[in-house]
Amino acid sequence: AQKVTQAQTEIxxxxxxDVTLDCVYETRDTTYYLFWYKQPPSGELVFLIxxxxxxxxxxxxxxxxxxxxxxTSSFNFxxxxxxxxxxxVYFCALRETNSGYALNFGKGTSLLVTP
Amino acid sequence: DAGVIQSPRHEVTExxxxxxxxxxxxxxxxxLFWYRQTMMRxxxxxxxxxxxxxxxxxxxxxxxxxxxxxxxxxxxxxxxxxxxxxxxVYFCASSLHPGxxxxxxxxxxxxxxxx
Lengths: 115, 115
Prior knowledge:
The structure holds 2 protein chains of 2 kinds. Chain A has strands spanning 4-5, 10-14, 19-21, 24-25, 32-39, 46-52, 59-61, 64-69, 74-79, 88-96, 104-105, 109-114. By secondary structure, chain A is an all-beta fold. In chain A, a hairpin with a 4-residue loop joins strand 8 and strand 9 (74-79). Chain A is globular, with a radius of gyration of 14 Å. Chain B is 0% helix and 54% strand. Chain B has strands spanning 5-7, 10-13, 19-24, 31-38, 42-50, 53-56, 65-71, 74-79, 88-95, 105-106, 110-114. In chain B, the strands form 2 sheets. In chain B, strands 2, 4, 5, 6, 9, 10 and 11 form a 7-stranded mixed sheet that branches. A 4-stranded antiparallel sheet of chain B has the order 1-3-8-7, with no helix packed on it. The N and C termini of chain B lie far apart (36 Å). Classes of the chains: A mainly beta, B mainly beta. At the A-B interface, strand 5 and strand 6 of A face strand 4, strand 5, strand 9 and strand 10 of B.
């Protein structure tokens, strides 16, 4: 069963628009970790953020912000004032502590930002 | 630190040939992971090591795949014989203990094409 669902396969926005990438996860663990990774066209996987299950504080880093809500099992990612360089595939991932140490990745959301 | 280093970046081989992918983890990281990325299956864990010892190889697709970690700074993933369906991007990642508040860092990947 898919543990991480990224319902948006592709999103296209015009530069300077705000965009939110959705991530819904499923776990029975009480301790778990959530991540976002970025995969630009060059192909590497770049770590963006980590959140543990006990820290529901939202985080802002420049134009990026993350909203973690345990009540809805969601960990959404918002890019404010998007730029062309934000074009990439974004992956949400879950790591559980009671079922091995694999990162369970969602299928990814491909974001295209056009000028 | 130079990050996780993988080689080669690209590999094209003929069906039936042996392929060896290489990975140098970040110094001090005692966990090493091999992931495979395909369009159909997304990112999936193949195997991971702790202190050079394979811990979980349940993701290795079949006996044609093998992985070793002879020391803390080097790991290989071997496919023998290779088949066209093995074509994918193979990522190596390393981290500190995944049960703690840490993230995995990924290499740039090896794009394998089996013709």
